[in-house]
Protein 1
Amino acid sequence: MLIESGYDRRAAVRYALNWAFARNPRFYDFEDIGGDCTNFVSQCLYAGCGVMNYSRENGWYYINSNDRAPSWTGVNFLRKFLLTNTGVAVYAEEAPLSELRRGDIIQLVNGEGRFYHTVIISAILSPAVPSNIFVCAHSADARNRRLSTYNYANAVGFHILGARKEIGIV
């Protein structure tokens, strides 16, 4: 049986701020083989929800560098997982930047329409426009960097709605 387990935004942001310029040795650093941005954001999301989805078909998990879900490290795969997940772990909805909160994520899109970078929101000033949204990231490591300083054609926001965990019924 699935129950809501919540998403701790403070824990996710705390993790992001702590590891923005460093690498947690529990996770492989993918910087030299395609980038570490989505791996880093997945770690932040995990810090905020405490549960992974071990489904081999469409899950979101990390055991080691060779045993992980594509959604853990792939920009497009993470987006698909967050928007379609009806099982265990975090889930989200696409949302305008003005409706995002700390602990939500943003994916950047280039001029050809390709999603290429994932960041997590660490702070937001009012109004929530790109110059007032601050993010943490890997692959060009950033801690409280203004979203407006990135070069992108579009920024797509994902509001984390919560997380679910499995409980057994006795």
Protein 2
Amino acid sequence: MKVNIWRIITIIALCALAFMAWYLRELNANVTEQIAQMTKERMSLSKKLIASYDLKKTLEAELASSNEEKTALQAAIENYETDIKELNGEMEKRKEESISLSDAINLKNKRISELENEIAKYEEENTRLREKLSVSFGRGKRYKNAAATDVKLEPITVESRYAKVRIKVLDVNKEYGFVVINAGENCGIKEGDTLFVFRGSRMVGEIEVERVGYDVAVAKPLYEHPKDAIRRGYTVKF
């Protein structure tokens, strides 16, 4: 009876050991499989980590490039703003110059109008002088014709043409280049005579008589002092 119990115990113990061996083997296989799976997952995670690291590097490089582009764009924007300010300043300057130029043009137009009015006055004065010359020449002819009639006139004494006569310059026409004096045939002046113009005691010019009326004559300037030209009111002498 004792032998059977020990056999049974031994068989049970062997069965238990066999079961334990199988269990450990199965457990080892499972653990090995899990370790292999974990190794695969670790390798996959390592690859993903490397890819993530590479992606990070790429993104950092792109970010740095973007920052550089941003800095360049910011500098370009600042340059454009500076150019805009300069252009605005130049525009304001041109506007002020345009206003100044417009004012200058208005002043010049005003001056032109004034000069046109002065020219019109001089033309009127010139016409008046020409009419006066025509009347004077006509008067001299009437006096000549009157001398041939039977009308008795009082004797007229005419001083010598070389005597000192108070002759003055009536007018000076610079445009047509002639001088009008207040003496003519009544003072013995003839065409071609050379007369001298004085300002006080200083001679300032020399004129040659071209046309002669009774009490007026027209002459052309032969010489004028560089700093004192012939003017109205100056004295004329033979």
